[in-house]
Design goal:
The protein has about 230 residues and is of the alpha/beta class. The protein is built from 8 helices and 13 strands. It has a 5-stranded parallel beta sheet, with helices on both faces.
Length: about 230
């Protein structure tokens, strides 16, 4: 399947140059000029990678990155005219996977894209399917949504990881300690109180699907899904 790369760049000349470069290198390309809603469109398209500028019209690329990271682990390469070491560090801290400054060298950009896609594919291959089911509810981790019939609810990144573990272990009692250990191992650093808050939010979202009893509390033992 041809990898899809989503470009968020407000300089039309650079955007078209990138699009041509990627098309001729065998990639499918999506672009946008609606920068304020770019994060939502990217989540809808579900591309294999995002090339993201920082200084966009009306919004910072860093803000778009923040919104994406709430719900997605899509690889992001910042391609920007900001070229100080602090700019690069800030982009990586905010969730970027790589950083290349303008004017970029096409062979270097293509090499970094290929390398990041290769690493991402290896990581993805190690993961189970992105869609899990428990009862009548489906969890799609690729878009951070839960579904039932024609109803759906959006999840935060933390809520999704909690539900993923409970769905993957449906029918089994999962202690709070085990759940917190799993989350910490997956870079979600929450304590006991934060876990309670997230579970309450998940139950409220399940209630929207008429499935508020899907996750049950076993007093003194933990949670069970199903």
């Amino acid at each position: 399947m041809t990898p899809i790369i989503y470009i968020v760049e407000d300089d039309e000349n650079i955007r078209e140059e990138l699009k041509l470069l990627l098309n001729t290198s065998g990639y499918e390309v999506c672009t946008t000029t609606d920068y304020k809603n770019a994060a939502d469109d990217i989540l809808s398209v579900n591309p294999d990678m995002v090339l993201l500028d920082v200084n966009l019209e009306g919004i910072s690329g860093l803000t778009i990155c923040d919104r994406l990271r709430e719900k997605s682990d899509v690889p992001i390469i910042f391609v920007t005219g900001n070229n100080t070491s602090m700019d690069e560090l800030n982009c990586i801290i905010r969730g970027g996977d790589d950083y290349i400054s303008k004017p970029y060298q096409p062979p270097i950009l293509l090499a970094r894209i290929a390398a990041l896609l290769k690493r991402t594919k290896k990581s993805t291959d190690k993961k189970s399917d992105t869609i899990l089911e428990c009862g009548n509810v489906r969890l799609d981790t690729s878009v951070a949504l839960i579904y039932k019939d024609n109803k759906k609810a959006e999840l935060t990144k933390n809520e999704m990881k909690i539900l993923y573990y409970l769905f993957a272990n449906k029918g089994k009692i999962i202690s709070r300690e085990e759940l917190i250990d799993y989350l910490w191992d997956n870079d979600v650093f929450i304590d006991d109180n934060a876990l309670s808050v997230n579970v309450t939010r998940i139950r409220n979202k399940l209630k929207e699907l008429d499935e508020e009893k899907l996750i049950q509390t076993k007093r003194g033992m933990g949670y069970i899904c199903g």
